[in-house]
Amino acid sequence: MKDTLGVLLAGGAGERLFPLTRDRAKPAVPFAGQYRIIDITLSNCINSDLRRVYILTQYKALSLNRHIREGWGSVVANELGDFIEILPPMQRVSKSWYQGTADAVYQNIYSIGSEQPKYVLILSGDHIYKMNYALMLEQHCETGADVTIATLPISPDEVAAFGVVEVARNGEVTGFIEKPRETSVRSPFTPDMVDVSMGIYLFNTDVLLPELIRDADDPKSKHDFGHNILPDLLGRYRVQAYNFVDENKQKALFWRDVGTLEAYYEANMDVAGVSPIFNLYDKSWPMRTRPYQYPPAKFVFGEPGRTGMAINSIVSGGSIVSGAVIRNSVLSHDVRVNSYADVDSSVIFSHVNIGRHCRIRQAIIDRDVHIPDGTVIGYDPQEDKKNYFVSASGLTVVTRDYSVYENPVSPMFLQGNGGTGT
What we know:
By secondary structure, this protein is α/β, with parallel strands linked by helices. The protein folds into 2 domains: 4-272, Spore Coat Polysaccharide Biosynthesis Protein SpsA, Chain A; 298-413, Hexapeptide repeat proteins (UDP N-Acetylglucosamine Acyltransferase, domain 1, 3 Solenoid). The protein is 20% helix and 27% strand. The chain has 9 helices and 31 strands. The strands form 8 sheets. It has a 7-stranded mixed β-sheet. Belongs to the bacterial/plant glucose-1-phosphate adenylyltransferase family.
């Protein structure tokens, strides 16, 4: 892996995660309480011994940049030439924003070339999975491939959201179609399934750079790996498929694109469950994030009808559950849930204060929101639409704009009673 440079694409606008991405980049959206989505891919990099990584940012990147700077800058040994470094759009070879995934890499071609890597691994910063990239590199070298595409078997009725990869019995890629409505292609290894791209590509550098330049000079191109680069390589280079090996070590393969509110919500509900498919507690494949200096979570009051407790839930540091009940939920840092409140099947971001007697169900509460006493959310979609964002599936999202809170002060400063809550 010392000869490999990772290029992590983290500049997408994330429209399908609106309103969570209105003020932040998609990879910066909180996940599982204390993490950000990008932490999962970066943890895979560190666990795979990939220690040189460029992160290409673009839209609304302030919180993402701060998270990377304060949480990941010291993970690698800079004195040994290792780095996890943010590359914002610099317009060195173009006067435009990134026009596609391939154009994003092309616009940083000088930075890539300056590192002189033998291999370049293209990654995405908005997927949830565990993968050892070193195993992919090992196969890449053994097969003599010029390009290797990580693939995942899925049901044929899901192909419209993926790049379909046609694979021969020897693993060579013979066809690639980006997001077709349907396909007759089937996997040679699981005949009732279709092999699709995971958005992870390993290139020989001497193949990647000329292809990026060639694509940049094509005015008809969308400058995208799936639409242009990969299909154009077939027949000219040896392109291999790498079957996803899941380090999660469960019966079912776990790879999630959390690009929609529903997918994001379900992934959070999974990690909070009794037997989650995505295991955050696996010491052999640790998940890392920025360290936060908060006190431990606390649960107070135990009288009948006013017992502070959390069931089948994740509660992060600095949070206080004060005579309230939390079920099947994920609480980020510095959350206060006050007496007689009931929170069920919800995702609560940091610095949220939930007042007394509130009832919240199947909701996502964005950071810095104060929920007034007695508020009911998630029980009447038509009523919720008057004040909040409600998705097509009925998931309620409360942000500072949509909520009816009156005091937007961080809950860390709302109480002066030594953290007992109300």
